[in-house]
Design goal:
143 residues; alpha+beta; Trna Endonuclease, Chain: A, domain 1; five-stranded mixed β-sheet; 5 strands; 26% helix
């Protein structure tokens, strides 16, 4: 049985689409744009992609003394709905649990905190549309 040459399959993922290696993944592009946007809005980015066994928080920042846990949702067009629609109750619970872990790990349990969501929409060649919802959801850690 012959196999294709490495040139043909080097960019492929098993059971996935062929990716162009020179392109930055959409989610990473969105997170970079969100960091720039938040910085211009007066936020100070502390951590990007904070990961634990419970999940990940895209951006942890500080704004006027408040710790802000930021979820970034990036989409090309709205065929799959608006980016905000991807922040489901289950996602809010997961982010909340990771945020509690971060607060405990850093000894910041008493600091005021909130959850913001940044939605980034790409449409063709136009500049991306960036939307920010401050205090988008409350701490949620139930079932």
């Amino acid at each position: 049985m012959s196999h294709p040459s490495p040139e043909l399959w080097s960019g492929a993922r098993l059971f996935g689409r062929i990716k162009e290696p020179e392109k930055i993944p959409l989610g990473r592009q969105g997170e970079a744009l969100a960091c720039q946007y938040l910085s211009r809005q007066g936020y100070r980015v502390i951590v990007r992609n904070y990961r634990t066994k419970l999940g990940e928080i895209d951006i942890i920042a500080e704004e006027q003394g408040t710790l802000v846990f930021v979820e970034v949702k990036t989409r090309r067009g709205h065929q799959c709905g608006h980016p905000f629609e991807a922040v489901t109750p289950a996602k809010c619970r997961q982010i909340s649990k990771v945020a509690l872990e971060y607060l405990a790990e850093t000894g910041r349990e008493g600091q005021s905190a909130r959850f913001d969501v940044v939605a980034i929409s790409f449409s063709g060649e136009a500049a991306p549309v960036i939307e920010l919802v401050k205090n988008a959801f409350d701490l949620s850690y139930g079932a």
